[in-house]
Amino acid sequence: MARVLVGVKRVIDYAVKIRVKPDKTGVVTEGVKHSMNPFDEIAVEEAVKMKEKKLATEVVAVSVGPAQSQETLRTALAMGVDRGIHVEISGKDFELLQPIHVSKILAKLAQEEKADLVVLGKQAIDDDSNQTAQMTAALLDWPQGTFCAKIEKTDAGLTIAREVDGGVETIKTKVPAVLSADLRLNTPRYATLPNIMKAKKKPIKKVTAKDLGVDTTPRIEILSVEDPPVRQAGTIVPDVDALIAKLKEGGHI
Amino acid sequence: MNRLGNFVIKSGRNAYKSDICTRSLASAAAQRKSTSVDPQDDKNRPNYSFVSNIFRGQVESKEMFPYPDVLSAEQKEFTNSLVDPFENFFSNVNNSVKNEENCQIEQSTLDHMWELGCFGLQPEEEYGGLGLNNTQNARMAQIVGAHDLGVGVTLGAHQSIGYKGIFLYGTPEQKQKYLPKVTTGRTFAAFCLTEPSSGSDAASIKASAKLSDDGKHYILNGSKIWISNGGICDIMTVFARTSEKHLTAFIVERGFGGVTSGPPENKMGIKCSNTTEVFYEDVKIPVENVLGEVGDGFKVAMNILNNGRYGMGATLSGTMKACIEKAVNHANNRLQFGNKIKEYGAIQEKIARMTMLQYVTESMSFQIAQNMDSGSLDYHLEAAISKVFSSESAWYVCDEAIQVLGGMGYMKDTGLEKVLRDIRIFRIFEGSNDILRLFVALTGIQYAGANLKELQKALKNPASNLGFLSQEVSRRAMKQIGIGGCNLGTFVAPALKSQADSISQCIDLFGKTVESLLVKYNKNIIHEQFLLNCLANSAIDIYGSVVCLSRASRAVELNLPTAEHEVSLTKAWCTEASVKIVDNLTRTSSRNYQEIFREMKNISKTVCDNEGVNTTHIV
User: Do residues B207 and B119 share a domain?
Assistant: First the structure.
């Protein structure tokens, strides 16, 4: 397991109240605080831990997105990642970028960089797709371990505890493999200020999707983005009879 | 009183190093000429301080408009990337309540702070620091202020004043030897100036350092009081008398021997910060530990304090923001008389005033920090104002936040009563607000007086000074007929034109008031503290208004989403400020106020003579 590739996506910060643009083409991103996708932070933490335990020799972070994605890469570098790759995609292509595109890019980079392990967050908190790790594994034809809650190095490869409905499933896999990080895998560290400063000097390579031979032309069209319906205010009824009457009136009973 | 005059003049001279009008105030002790080539020593250098120049009734716009913007896009990104880990530390690791209960910061928290790198924000990387400039440092200070002022004072005593002298005045050898210890080496620093008998009158310190017979050491004897970090520091910047007239700054290690500290003081607030007395008994300081030049100690002390003052404003702007959030959260949710209390005018006025004060404070501190970063040498009056303004505003904001929360605000668990106690010290330490008001007024007057002197001199020999005179005559004549006065209108966004005009008129009136006070009192003006306070308060309000005009105009220029709100804050602030300024300035010549001030002098005298109130009880 010489080299680990991690994916880091720049998303609207989890604490920000999301606002839909008046023209309903998307959500407001300008002047809004962005951060690294929290599941990707967990992936980075796991990769950095592997390096600290000498299970990995190098950790490379990849971010696919506009120029500001470099800020997210810097965060990863400050956490202990060795170098970054920024695949710049902007404008319409970025707005309509789908997991399939990102998977193709990651698969290509995993081969180019001769990665032994790809660790991704299980999903991004903006589009909640939960597809990229699975498709990347498929494109590479590598084994996959999704929703990891524990990753351990064993002789033959990795032993992984996966969070599944109603319990934990333990599997073994060979490397190379693609893993996706679940919430309880670890608690990501906060970068220290001196490490943030040192991260400024770590290299970030810039490539385009075209360089990698991946076509990111949009395949979908956004028709409308809308706020969830506002919850109606409730009323307090004086007694059970009134409640039953109301329910009947509403056709609920 | 003469002593105060001396204090002000000395620091004034240190600020400008010019020979302006010191004779018209009082005779200051002769200053020792520094051997180093300091740009501050250049007598012919123009003074770009906005506040200084309003004392001449003039607008000096260079450092005021447009609102400075010194950080590159990369520096901004870097600074913002420091915010999250810093915030995280204060929200998730530091426990301000526990710190206060224990009257100390937990060791694990301190360890975390050392790892995080917060003790070395400004020194260069080669010394283990982060190399932040003042603007970046101010951004960090805001976060500290929002969470724990006790930790803030510990941090500030360490790096804003404790080792700031080594950072500013240290030789390469001193920096190499000491800075790595205090940035990353888990060694605390302290600033040791105040003594039992020497508070605001800093020039009167008694601790003495005598050169040993072999000339290799200074022998330090004396004691210092109320030293933040006094019990935990191993490295201190100590000021001691090396001759009858001169002070010298030294770097003293606790390990030199003869250094002891008293028990931690029990304070009203900032309880987790360590405050003690420090005693020096025959402490042998190697001569190479003199900081700056021998005899320059007063200048070193004042410059360290001047250099760090903006940080206090930045810190407190963060504190105010946190108080406002608590108040607004309550106002948004509390239902009384069938409405959320935010719907009531009484609450709206409070929230608006709190917000305005926060805006002015933040605008001041970031203007000063940024000007310092672009090489300004004339920020001392601005920094003094920002210290006075921020500490008083923070008190008001926290007090009103408690009021908005009502009974809840008074409860310990709400967290505001601690903040109120913590804030109180900011009006007292690092130059009390009363002294700084006099400093602002007298330094400004001194600068205005220099101009008048020049005019008087020119009048004695009109023929050879025709140029200067005709310029001065036409300036005055134009002002008389209402044109050629101050005009801020050209610098501001169109929406703020009317406020800019009112403040311009205030500056004209301010200049005239200073001139007439100088003519009336001449050097005796230093004894008129009632009047000096009126001037200082007007200067504070003028500076606060103009700094807002500048920042809000920037917001409009950049089309920021908050521009409209910032314009609205600025309009309300400036309109009210101009009323206050005119009122304060009118007081200096008003018969009513002459009487009021005279009566107040009498009242105070009677009560002091009587050692308490002196009225006959009704019963």
Answer: no
* B306 falls within a domain: no
Instruction: Give catalytic status of residue B430 as yes or no.
Output: yes
Q: How far, in Å, CA of B267 to CA of B264, rounded?
A: 9
User: What mean pLDDT is predicted for residues A2-24?
Assistant: 94
Of B430, B472, B595, B599, catalytic: B430
**Is B59:B486 a contact under the CB 8 Å cutoff?**
yes
Select the residue of A35, A192, A197 nearest B125 (Cβ to Cβ). Answer: A197
Query: Element (H or E) spanning B172, and its range?
Result: helix B172-183
B489 and B593 fall within a common domain: yes
List Cβ neighbours of B41 (8 Å cut-off, separation of 6 or more): B17, B34
- Write the CATH number for B80: 1.10.540.10
Does B422 reside within a domain? no
All structural domains of chain A, each given as residue ranges with its CATH number in brackets, are 3-249 (3.40.50.620)
Measured between CB atoms, does B130 come within 8 Å of chain A? yes
Please state the domain count of chain B.
Answer: 3
**B259-261 and B290-291: which strand pairing?**
unpaired
Same structural domain, B223 and B90: no
What pLDDT does residue B500 have? 97
Q: Judge if B47 and B78 occupy the same domain.
A: no
CB B185 within 8 A of CB B128: yes
Q: What is the CA radius of gyration of chain A?
A: 22
Spatial CA neighbour of B48 closest among B337, B380, B479, B297:
B380
What's the burial of B103, exposed, middle or buried (CB within 10 Å: 0-12/13-18/19+)?
middle
CA of B80: which chain A residue's CA is closest? A71
Amino acid at B503: I
Query: Domain range spanning residue B474?
Result: 2-28+38-62+435-603
Band (pLDDT 50/70/90 cuts) for residue A248 is: very high
- Cα angle for residues A165, A169, A170 (degrees, 5° grid): 165
Last residue of a domain, one of B130, B156, B183: B183
State the Cα–Cα distance between residues A206 and A238, nearest whole angstrom.
Answer: 66
Structure tokens at B462: 């009109």
End-to-end CA distance of chain B: 41
Nearest to A192 among B78, B116, B131 (CB): B116
Task: Give the model confidence (pLDDT) of B369-381 as tens digits.
Answer: 999 999 999 999 9
The pTM of this model reads 0.87
Whether residues B179 and B209 share a domain: the answer is: no
User: Residue B17: what pLDDT?
Assistant: 34
Same domain, B174 and B278: no
Residue B512's CATH number:
1.20.140.10
Question: Does residue B480 lie in a domain region?
Answer: yes
User: Which member of A31, A74, A192 has the closest CB to residue B117?
Assistant: A192
Distance CA B533, CA B544 (A): 16
Residue B13: other Cβ atoms inside 10 A: 19
What 8-state DSSP symbol labels residue B251? E
Which chain A residues are Cβ-neighbours of B82 within 8 angstroms? 193, 196
User: What ipTM describes this predicted complex?
Assistant: 0.77
On whether both B226 and B134 belong to a single domain, the answer is no
Q: And the tokens for A4?
A: 């680990």
* B175 shares its domain with B233: no
Residue B308 is assigned to a structural domain of this protein: no
CB contact under 8 A, B130 and A193: yes
State which amino acid sits at residue B250. F
**CATH code: domain of residue B227:** 2.40.110.10
φ and ψ of B333, to 5 deg: -115, -25
Inter-chain touch A71–B89, beta carbons under 8 Å: no
